[in-house]
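idk why but the lab printer keeps eating my pages so im just putting this in chat instead. protein + aspartic acid:
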Amino acid sequence: MALIVQKYGGTSVGDTNRIKNVALRCLAAQEAGHDVVVVVSAMSGETNRLLKLVAQITDRPDEREQDVVVATGEQVSIGLVAMAIQAQQGKATSFLGHQVRIVTDSTFSKARIKSIDAQPIRAALAKGHIVVVAGFQGVDEEGNVTTLGRGGSDTTAVAVAAALQADACEIYTDVDGVYTTDPNMVPAARKLDRITYEEMLELASVGAKVLQIRSVEFAMKYKVPLWVKSSFTDDPGTLVCEEDKSMEDVLVRGVAYDRNEAKITVCGVPDVPGIAAKIFGPLDEKAIVVDLIVQNPSKDGRTDLTFTVGKADFLKAQDVVKAAMKEIGAVGVETDDDIAKVSIVGVGMRNHSGVAARMFKALSSEGINIQMISTSEIKVSCVVAAKYTELAVRALHTAFGLDQPMPPAGATAVSETAALKGEKV
Ligand code: ASP
Ligand code: MG
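predcted complex ->
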């Protein structure tokens, strides 16, 4: 007998028929002899609907109050799922975040989980119940409602799995696994059987929306085997797991894009020590996550500093930068939210050279100008004009051989290495 945490996303609980289908799936897992904990998101579109209501009131919402509003979506779906299970003669109990003490910090709208009290869940499981936990929401030390950021139910599921030391965490969604890229954009995209935590982390962080990034961090830290599966099929899905030798043979596992960032350039910044800290310190104090940063070589003692933030933080970040401008003696601020970031990710990059060069070549042969570049050990990202997103993703998918099936696990992709000869970054 295993302890399984299943998570169902918004589309999987999108209407009452789908909720009945979720109930049947939970019951089937229980009938197979498992203890079942199910974490659910709000019904599809609900969180967006709630955020729209907020936006009709103000464009700079108090985030505590916003969380009070958006956390309600999950309360509806857990109650409905629990009742759907009961309607099939099953036993089920729903829990809100605070009822299982999903304690978070107080960073409203993107709170981090600190601890979970597994006891109420274990007690309900011991009575033969399927436990239905609200995703996305928590409670801070003062008892305020918090939420974990968009897509946060994934993180709830993995955190619950870690707290319970579950045997597996299954994330059910509307796609049947993790793909080499967005299959809606690139028909040649293929489903991966396995992907490493690290690759998934990079793909999630660069905009592949299949899993929330913090859920993957959690899974990696606590070594929770994470399955991404469809709630509409019986396909085995994709396993997110620890790396093994054969996984390094593939140069690029996936291509991702993100149209959710915006670019801010602080112009004419004096090129003296401490300036970057004066810009990024206040951004950090406001919990604004800065992604790419590029500083131009200075001319006449002044330089331009460009960085990207999430579109949701764009206005707030501009306010912060404008407030800091006087103090740092910058000349002006330029902004652009018509950008996209395209990225290639693969653990194979560690042992192969020429990957970035091949990426730049693929983009330039489509006439796409690169505005910013950033790299990590297993990732290269380029910021381009938003209108080129699709073209860039397709070109990269083809350039790195992802249109073709991957070599089977254990096979060596000799051709991939050979094709890179002579290209050095
Ligand atoms: N309902 C939340 C959202 O739409 C959380 C989730 O779906 O995971 O972002
Ligand atoms: Mg989701």
